[in-house]
What does this fold into?
Amino acid sequence: MRNAYLLPLLFTSFLLLPAIGISQNLFPDGVYFSFHQLVKAKPGLYPEQLRNKVQKQVAPKAWFRSDSLFCMIKGATIHIPADSLFAFVDDGQLYIQRKHYAHKASVTGSLTYFTESYPVHSTPAPVSIDLAKDITPRILDFTTGKILEYSTVVLEEILKERDELLYKEYTALATQKLKRQLLLRYIEKYNERHPLLIKEEL
It folds into this structure.
C-alpha cells in the first residue's frame, strides 16, 4: 500500500528533473563575447582563465571590476578590452555589459529584464563624485538578440506577434497606468509560458 503512494511521487520527481544538456542556472559562469555565445551557453572565457593585473585568478564579477582585465589562453597572458564583452555570469547571475558597465539582470528568461545604471558625475568639482545614477530599464529579447526599450508599446508588439492570449489579456487592462504598473509582471508571465531552455554545446 505504501508503494502505491510513493510511485506517483517518484514519477512527479522524475518529470521535474532538468533535461540533459540544459543548465539549471541557465548559463555557466564565465565571460561571453557575443549574444551567440550566451544563447548557446558557451562562454568565451571560463572563470579559471580570468586574471587581474597581479595575475591572480578571480571570479568574473571581481575580474570585471578590476582596473585591467587579463586572461590566460594556452599559457599566454592576454589583455581583454572591457567593451569587447557582451555579458558575464558570476555564481549563476547574469550581467549585461554596456558602455563599460555591468548591468545586473533582475528577471532572466526569454525576455530578460535588466536596468542600465550609470553614475552621474558632478562637473564643477575637481574630483568626480557620484551624485546619483542615470537609470534606464531594458529588455534583452532572446528570440532576436536585441536589447529593447522597456515600455508597454514594446511588450504589446511582442505579445501581438507571439502570444495572442497574453496580448488580449494585457491590452484589455483598464488604463495605461495599470499597464505600466503590470509591465514587469507580464514579462514574467510571458517567460512562464515561453521558458528559455539553454542547451549547452559540448
